[in-house]
């Protein structure tokens, strides 16, 4: 029997991207182990309606309690480590790690490692307004990994955020929104971005490599594959290096 650690997923933010995590993780485990193998995992999925309301109300303590509760449920269920299936809620990474005795696989870490491995330093960042404008994400990329992070102009940030919350979290993909993202990416490249981080787990539903003149680092795929690395304790070069999108 293949030995696997149990991946604990905090999902539902939104379930559209959480479903992508589940698919990517299980497909990769099957690819690596062969046959009909799949991942050992648990998911606690929140009601994103509640989360979105608290986010836009600025109630981060209420959100922290929701994340602590989710993490505790996963630990009690037998998870060996935790994956938060969203970039924005990594603002509360410390609340999660402080609530349980099992480790958290932070989404920014494998992403930054992939960027550095590619020999890149100046990167654009797309995400929710919280991720782009607050420092919990950019400071980790800069402080721990020496990356120079470029965020979109204010009007572009508003458009990126609106499309995420009004469309992508509901599974709505519009050609006009893809064009808008292409234009935002192009402006980041004009400002010297050597690559762009898709720093919201729903953005991969909208854009892909052909939408950008520079490499796109899809945090959903990178994070999910890093979870498989940890679950299987894979040695050597990660299979995630084969993902063309990043």
Summarize the structure.
This protein is an alpha/beta fold and 246 residues long.
Protein described:
This protein has ten helices and seven strands. Helix 2 (48-57) runs antiparallel to helix 3 (60-77) and helix 5 crosses helix 10 (219-232). It starts with 6 loop residues before the first strand and ends in a 14-residue tail after the last helix. It has helices at 15-33, 48-57, 60-77, 93-99, 108-117, 129-133, 135-145, 154-166, 175-190, 219-232, and strands spanning 7-11, 41-45, 81-84, 122-126, 148-150, 195-198, 216-218. Helix content is 50%, strand content 12%. The protein has a four-stranded parallel β-sheet with strand order 5-4-6-7, sandwiched between helices. Strands 2-1-3 form a three-stranded parallel β-sheet, with helices on both faces. The chain folds into two domains: 7-106 and 221-236, Rossmann fold, CATH 3.40.50; 108-218, Rossmann fold. Mean pLDDT is 94; it is low at 234-246. By secondary structure, the protein is of the alpha/beta class. It is an enzyme of class 5 (isomerase). GO terms for molecular function: aspartate racemase activity. Pfam families: Asp_Glu_race (PF01177).
